[in-house]
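Internal QA ticket QA-208
Title: Verify multi-chain structure generation after dependency bump
Assignee: T.L.

Test input:
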Amino acid sequence: MISDGPPPARRDVRLEGFNSRSSFDEALRWIDGHSQPLNAEEVSVAAAAGRVLARTFLAPADQPPADTAEMDGYALRSAETIGAGGYNPLPFRLQQDRRQLNPASVLLISSGAPMPLGADAIASFGLVRSDAAAIEVIEPVTRGAGVNFKGQEVKAGAALIDGSRPLRPTDLGLLASFGVTAVKAIRRPLVRLILTGCKSLSGGSSGDANGPMLRALIARDGGLIEPEAEQLPEQPARSATPEDSVQSVQSALAALMAKPGADLILVCGLTGTGPDDVTPLALDAAGSLDVHGIALHPGGSAGMGRVGETPVILLPGSPLHCLCAYDLLVGRLIRRLGGRASRLPYALRQAAVGRKIVSSIGNFELAQVRLVSGEAVPLGSAGSGGLAAAARAEGFVLIPAPLEGYRPGTPVSVYIYDQADTLEGRDL
Amino acid sequence: MISDGPPPARRDVRLEGFNSRSSFDEALRWIDGHSQPLNAEEVSVAAAAGRVLARTFLAPADQPPADTAEMDGYALRSAETIGAGGYNPLPFRLQQDRRQLNPASVLLISSGAPMPLGADAIASFGLVRSDAAAIEVIEPVTRGAGVNFKGQEVKAGAALIDGSRPLRPTDLGLLASFGVTAVKAIRRPLVRLILTGCKSLSGGSSGDANGPMLRALIARDGGLIEPEAEQLPEQPARSATPEDSVQSVQSALAALMAKPGADLILVCGLTGTGPDDVTPLALDAAGSLDVHGIALHPGGSAGMGRVGETPVILLPGSPLHCLCAYDLLVGRLIRRLGGRASRLPYALRQAAVGRKIVSSIGNFELAQVRLVSGEAVPLGSAGSGGLAAAARAEGFVLIPAPLEGYRPGTPVSVYIYDQADTLEGRDL
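Actual output:
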C-alpha cells in the first residue's frame, strides 16, 4: 500500500529497546492529521445530547411567533391606564373573547398565551382590585409590560447553535421549542477495541483492567464500540511463548486489524520490546506502522499507523501507560473524529506545586497529583503501571519535554478528574 | 397525612400572585432535608462508570501480588553485575526456566511477568550485548531496577476508592485489576416526569421543549426516568379552560403524583398564578405542598412538597425558568439521592464582569453570560423564558439575594457549560 505520511517506523524493536522515539509533538501532529470529522447522520433530538451539529442551526421562525404573555395577569391597553391610582381606580370590563380586546376591557391571561389583538401590556394581579366581572386598575401600566413581543428573543434565520460544541440539554429544549425533532449531527466514531490480554500486575490479564477502563473512556469521548469487541482467543503466557505461537498471535492481530468497518482501531497490549510484543509487527503487516515509541511517560511504547484509511493506535498493556496514551492521544482522535474540540475533557484549576514534581528531560510527562490544602502534590512514582495512583489523584499536571519537572511553589495548571473538585469549598 | 416539615404552603395563589415567598436558602434547606442517599444495589463493574460506591473499596490483595517485572529486559541478580563495564563485560547464561534463577544466569522477561525466584533486578536491553544463548552485561544494575515488588503499589486492605465521588474510568480498571466484577453502589434515583404541556413561546406545547431538556439533565445528574413518563392526555388551552376542565386536570395530576414507585416526582408546568395553574393544588390534595413561590429568578414559581415520603418538585413551564429551577434545586436533589456531591456539575472559571449585571434585591438570581475577551457579559434580559440565551451563553453567574447585581470589573465565578471552555486557548 502507498503511504502518504512520514516514512514508516518498520524496525523491529524487540530485544533492543526504543533507540529512537518520536516526540510527543510529532505524535500529536499524526493524530491531528488523521482525524477529519466523520460524515453526518440524522439523529433524533431526544437522543442528541452530546452530539455535534454538522451544520449551524438557524432559527426556522421568530420566537415568540406572535406577541405572547410572559406573566400571569390581565392583558390591557396601557394607554387606558394613565392616571390610575389607589385613590383613582379605573374600572375595566373583564372580557372572555381571547382574540381581540375591546375598549376599556381586560382579559385574564396566563404566561405563555398569545396576546389578544389590541392589548400591549399586562397588569399583574398586584396592580388590580377584582371581584366577579369588575376589575379596577390601581396603577398605570407601562406599554410592553409583561409582553414578549414577536421575534423579541429570536429572529427567524438567526444562527442559534453551531458545531463548535456538543449539544447541551438546553439546546435540545431550544430545538424542540421550534418543533424540530431530528438534526444532522457528526457520526459517532465506531471503535474496534482489540485486547491482547497481556498479564497485569495482579496476575490476571490486563485486558481485564484495560477493557472496562477503555470502554468508559471511549464512551466519555463520544465513541461507539463495535458490539463484538475482540479479545484474542488464546492469551499467550508472556515471555514463555514459543516462536510459532508468537507468530500465530501476530497473524491473528493482523487479521483483526484488516477487517473493514471501524473508524478507528485500538489495540491494547504487546507494544513493548519483549519477545512477544508483536502488535507493531502485526500493524506493519496489515498496513503501515507510522510511529512506534514516543517520548511520552507514561505511555512511551504506544504506536500509530493505518490499515487502508483507518487509523490504528497501539496502546501499552500496562494500565497506567494505557491510560496516559489513551488520554493524550486516542481521546483526542475520537473527539476530533466526532466533531468535538481537541482539548482534554477535564476542567482546569490553577495551583502551586506543593512538593517537587520530577520529570526526565526529553520526555513529555503526565504526573498524577493530589490537591493538599490547594497545592499540587505528586503521587509516588508514575513508573509502576497500576491505577491505584489515579484513584487517589484529584487530577494531573503535564510537564513539557524540555523541563525536568516543577519546583515547589511553581504555579501549574491541574487537569481535574471530577468537575465537583473545581468547586471545592462551595455549597453550590 | 402528618407533616414533619415547615407549615404547609396551602394558600391558593391563583389570580393573586406570590405575596410571600420562601427564600432560596429555605428552598435549599428543604432540598437537603429530603435527599438522603438511596439504598445500595449490586452493579457490574462494566456498567459502574459514574456510580457512587456504597462503601469504601479496600484492596482485597497486594498489588502486585508478587515481585513483577515493570519493564522488558533480562532478570538477574544485581550483585552479580558489580564491576561490569564496556571494557569488562560480564558473561551470563540465558536460561529458560521461569521459576528460579540459576547463578550467573539471566532470564528474558517482559513487563508484567512475575520475577523468577532469586532475581532482584532487570537489565534493560541497552545494558547488555547478546547473541544466541550468551549475554554480556556491560553496566552494573542496581538492586530493584525494573522490579515492582510485591505490595509496592497497594497493600492488601488499603482504602482505594470511597463514596465521595462518582467512579471514574480508571476506577473500573483498578477494580477489574483485582478480579472484581461487581460492586455495591447507591441506587440511581427513579424519577417520574410529568409534563403538563402548557403552551410555549413558539405556540407548541412547552412540554415539547422541557421534555427533551429535562430528560438530558436528569440523565446528566445520574437519575433514571420511569419508562412511561407521564404527559397529561389532554392539554388544556391555557386561560380558556372551563372550571370543570381545570378541576379534571387537577385530579389527573393528583392521581399521577399518588402512584407509588418513584424516588422523586417532577411536575413541569401550571405552577404560576393563572386560573389553570393547578399543579400546587394537586400536590396539596395528593400530599403536602411545603413550599410554593421562591425568591429565585428565573424559576420563582417553583414549588416543593411530598406525597408520602416521596419528594415532589414543581417546575415552572416556561423553559428558562424550568432550567434554572431544575439546575439549582432538582439537580441537587437527584445528585444527593444518588450519593453524588451536592455541587453544580459545572466547572468554574474566574472572570471580571464586562458589562453591568442587573439583579433585583431580595431575589437569588441566575444570569446567563457570554465570555467576551475573558470578561463575563450578561445576555439580554433573563425574564423572557426562552432558551436562546442559554444557547448563546458560555455559562452563568449567581447573584445572592442581598445584591442588586455586579458592576463592571467585579470579579465573579462563572459556572461553565462546556468543560472545554475552561481550557480556552489551550491545545491540550
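Spot checks passed. The radius of gyration of chain B is 31 Å.
Status: verified.
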